[in-house]
Amino acid sequence: MKHILKSINITVLLTILFVAILSCSATSIQSLKHNDKKENLIEVTPVVNDYVSNVVKPVLDSYPEKDKLSVLIKVSKILIDENTGVNKNSIKPSRYIYYDLLEKVKLGFLVSFKMSAEQKRNLKDWHEKYMKKTPADVFFAPSADEIIKYKAAFGCSHYARSFIAVVKALGLMDKPEDLRYVISSKADDYNKALEKNDSEMTINGHQFVIAKIDAKWILINTSKSEWTAMPEGFSPNSIGPPKNFPIRFPSYPDVTFLFRKIGKDCDDDCNDNSLAALMNIYRSGDSQSSNFKWERFEGVN
């Protein structure tokens, strides 16, 4: 088995991912219609409520800190914890891609050796549901309900969605518009694509959450349980093309992220349900448009 897996050249894997990204990022508005959301990705479902009641709330009840920011960060820590979190059955992203490649010749089972029964179920189910058309959609398509049900989070979008659903179930925020889903892109990647006017160039990014606490906006990096405050006077409602705003997190000290899309409230998932939608959001802030609408961001190495 190890010999077979090793024989799959990493270059082939990266090439397939790159081609998938290129094909999706250049997709026209018409062909994007099949990606219109059919379910809300951050909905509070019975699965979410059960997880909150049985896992999250008992931990919070014994947590000494009660101020809102501390509680929100604690929720994030619960979600990424290997025992209490939504990643207990996670699988390395590369395994999904290997499985997709091998399953084309009915050898996908080779990837699942030494996996738990839950991981095998997750691998098979998510491959069937999300990877048949565009393999990379497994990074972006699962809802909070599915992520929590399978305990299979492995990426920033998974953690951000789970966090918002859990916080809503707990009733921690006073107003729906005080908690929002955020999609960002790397500033240097965006600048390079913009300079070449290349709508097919890969633009990496990050998903996280923004919350309003005591009249101040706080960015919560839900995949790392860290936060950073926005400057006085900042409003997510003022962010839009052509100007942008820099974002930095402690875990990525050398990376500047830029806002691409901010949900209007805690129920707005930004239609971030596929690679095609995400790549267009990176360029325009609109999942249905692949045009560059933001100016070049200065001050990036």
Shape: globular
Helix content percent band: 25-40%
Give the number of helices: 10
| Cα Rg | 19 Å
Q: Which structural class should the secondary elements be placed in?
A: alpha+beta
| pLDDT averaged over residues | 88
- Regions with pLDDT < 50 over 5+ consecutive residues? 1-37
Oligomeric status of the shown chains? single chain
- State which percent range the strand residues make up: 5-15%
Q: What is the count of distinct domains?
A: 2
- Major sheet: size, sense and barrel closure? 6 strands, antiparallel
| Major β-sheet strand ordering | 4-3-2-1-6-5
Q: Give me the count of strands.
A: 6
The termini sit apart by 44 Å
| Elements, N to C (H/E) | HHHHHHHHEHEEEEEH
Task: Describe the fold and architecture.
The protein has 301 residues and is an alpha+beta fold. It folds into two domains: 1-14 and 37-172, no CATH class; 175-301, no CATH class. It has ten helices and six strands; from the N terminus they run ααααααααβαβββββα. It has a six-stranded antiparallel sheet. The longest helix has 16 residues, at 10-25. It is globular.
Which helices and strands occur, and which strands form pairs?
Blueprint lengths: L1 H5 L3 H16 L20 H16 L6 H13 L12 H11 L13 H14 L13 H7 L5 H15 L8 E8 H10 L8 E9 L2 E6 L4 E4 L16 E2 L9 E6 L12 H10 L17
Antiparallel strand pairs: 1-2, 1-6, 2-3, 3-4, 5-6
Helix pairs in contact: 2-10, 3-7, 3-8, 4-8, 7-8
